[in-house]
Amino acid sequence: MTPDIEAWQSWHPAVVAERLAGVATPWYVAGGWAVDLHLGRTTREHEDLEIGVPRERFAEVAGRFPELAFYVAGSGRVVPATPDALDAEYQTWALDAAAELWRFDVMREPHDGDTWVSRRHASLRRPYTSIVCLSRDGIPYLSPEVVLLFKAKHRRPKDEADHALLAPVLTEAQRAWLDAALDLVHPGHAWRG
């Protein structure tokens, strides 16, 4: 039986960070929670928790959560995380079967060794050391310019709100990277510059 795809009660990033303490795989909190971790405050309620990991190193992260069942999400459905399903999509949801609730979403991202590769445009590559920041509490999160690149695709109200919060605090280098990335992925995007 496939769990209800709307049954989300996500964990706080600190819970995942505690469970992943000491893991050798680079990982980071992404999405709206990354905005809050960067700003050092909660700016809105979060429907889910997304983390990113190198695609081929997912098993090391999943192994830290033996009580959870992992499902592959994509094309409007969730299916058990079989090898074929894992090859077909990049999103993996973690299910707390006892509570029948989704706890977090793992984005299994392309990489080349210790270099992150954007799934939006393979020419966008950066060492994990340059895209993973640490919050005041030591929680790894995705750097704000990369968060905004992913949020630029949909421009939902929450994405626009996150852009309004992050754009003024980007460094000159972060702004330049985002502008160049938007030119590649979303030419003419309103967030450029």
Summed over residues and divided by their number, the pLDDT gives a mean of 95
Largest sheet: 6 strands, mixed
Q: Whole-number radius of gyration?
A: 16 Å
The strand order across the widest sheet is 1-2-6-5-3-4
What's the N-to-C terminus distance? 48 Å
Name the beta content range: 15-25%
Write the H/E string, N to C: HEHEHEEHEEEEEHEEHHH
**Helix tally?**
8
SS class: alpha+beta
Q: Low-confidence stretches at least 5 residues in length (pLDDT < 50)? A: none
Share in helix: 25-40%
Named at the architecture level, the CATH assignment of one domain is: 2-Layer Sandwich
Could you give the count of β-strands?
Answer: 11
Q: Briefly, what CATH class of one domain?
A: Alpha Beta
Q: What characteristic shape results from the CA principal axes?
A: globular
CATH topology of one domain: Beta Polymerase, domain 2
Structure overview:
A hairpin with a 4-residue loop joins strand 5 (91-96) and strand 6 (101-109). The protein has 193 residues and is of the alpha+beta class. Helix content is 33%, strand content 24%. The protein contains 8 helices and 11 strands. Helix 6 (144-151) packs antiparallel against helix 7 (157-166). It has a 6-stranded mixed sheet. The protein has a domain at 13-143: 2-Layer Sandwich (Beta Polymerase, domain 2). It has helices at residues 13-19, 31-39, 58-62, 83-88, 128-131, 144-151, 157-166, 172-185; strands at residues 28-30, 50-54, 69-74, 77-80, 91-96, 101-109, 111-112, 115-117, 125-127, 132-134, 140-142.
